[in-house]
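Postdoc handover notes: sequence design on the structure in folder B. Input tokens:
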């Protein structure tokens, strides 16, 4: 039961991102999260607030026409605090007929707060990216143009 609830919380982060439901993303994340996407984007891992993560994704992901995240192969260990989960992820991003796909595995940690799971750590281990690798820059341009038009 608890394993399922933890997997649902993790899934809510990515489903929320696909649906642009930023409050759902924030609610599935702890107040402070160790976020490490360096295997994909370079830079350094960061400790961010749930709002900072949701805001960052909200300023980028809507630049795509659509995104779709698929999570699978969950391995959950509830034996310690925090709980740990490892899973596979595939993210498809679309602009028009072009697509960019990111595949990898994730390590996550979560704690229970107020009777529900909240993710405290999310680390992507990039395995492969394929398709139009210029799509992230194009999505960034779309968002820059949307912001400038306001």
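Designed sequence:
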């Amino acid at each position: 039961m608890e394993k399922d609830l933890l997997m649902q919380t993790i899934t809510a982060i990515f489903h929320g991102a696909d649906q642009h439901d930023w409050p759902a993303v924030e609610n599935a994340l702890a107040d402070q999260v160790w976020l490490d996407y360096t295997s994909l984007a370079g830079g350094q891992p960061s400790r961010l607030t749930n709002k900072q993560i949701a805001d960052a994704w909200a300023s980028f992901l809507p630049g795509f026409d659509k995104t779709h995240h698929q999570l699978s192969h969950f391995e959950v260990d509830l034996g310690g605090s925090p709980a740990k989960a490892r899973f596979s992820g595939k993210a498809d991003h679309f602009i028009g007929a072009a697509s960019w796909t990111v595949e990898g595995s994730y390590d996550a940690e979560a704690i229970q707060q107020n009777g529900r799971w909240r993710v405290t750590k999310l680390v992507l281990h990039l395995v492969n990216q394929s398709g139009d690798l210029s799509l992230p820059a194009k999505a960034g341009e779309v968002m820059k143009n949307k912001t400038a038009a306001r």
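Context for whoever picks this up: The beta strands are 29-36, 46-49, 66-77, 83-95, 98-113, 116-131. Don't rerun without checking with the PI first.
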